[in-house]
Write a structure and sequence with these properties.
five-stranded mixed sheet, Outer membrane lipoprotein wza fold like, alpha+beta, three-stranded antiparallel sheet
């Protein structure tokens, strides 16, 4: 009985872990419009809460403008640690957290197409719910995602994850 319960719990855990889509927000690629919180351990004067500007830059005390677009939070953290260690701090520990993501866009057969705030782990089903739900003419399976920076459309279902900057297209049903 105990062995069966253990296998059951492990199976549930593996199912949840395998459907999560991505491990954590450190895997997101930072882009224009994302808001970052950057802190350096024991250096409160170096704390920054900033939005990535239209050219992909942020301003950091002591370092000036830094290009962060196209990088992950983990990569930015390591780069900042190296920059601060080069003449400014001894053994700096930098934390980079995405405070808010750039919007996603939804168009097609939804009640209120437009731009909406992206939340971590959002699915297509949650996206069209935020947009007021599907219209009566919406297809139940003709859903596509155009990932930011890619030229191809990805076939989606209700459990497909929506990433910051994505455009979700809900097609029309013919019957």
């Amino acid at each position: 009985m105990r062995k069966t319960l253990s296998y059951f719990l492990i199976s549930i855990y593996l199912c949840i872990a395998s459907t999560s889509g991505y491990a954590n927000q450190n895997e997101f690629v930072i882009g224009v419009g994302d808001t970052l919180a950057i802190s350096v351990y024991n250096e409160p004067d170096l704390f920054v809460n900033t939005k990535v500007d239209s050219s992909g830059l942020i301003k950091m005390p002591l370092l000036g403008d830094l290009n962060v677009a196209g990088k992950t939070a983990k990569t930015i953290s390591k780069e900042l640690e190296a920059m601060f260690a080069d003449g400014y701090l001894v053994n700096p520990n930098v934390s980079v957290t995405v405070e808010s993501f750039r919007p996603f866009y939804i168009r097609g057969e939804v009640t209120r197409p437009g731009a909406y705030e992206t939340s971590f782990g959002m699915t297509v089903e949650q996206a069209f719910t935020i947009a007021g739900g599907l219209t009566d003419r919406a297809s139940s399976h003709n859903w596509l995602i155009l990932r930011e920076g890619q030229n191809e459309r990805i076939k989606a279902n209700k459990d497909t994850f929506v990433m910051p900057g994505d455009t979700v297209e809900i097609g029309q049903s013919f019957f």
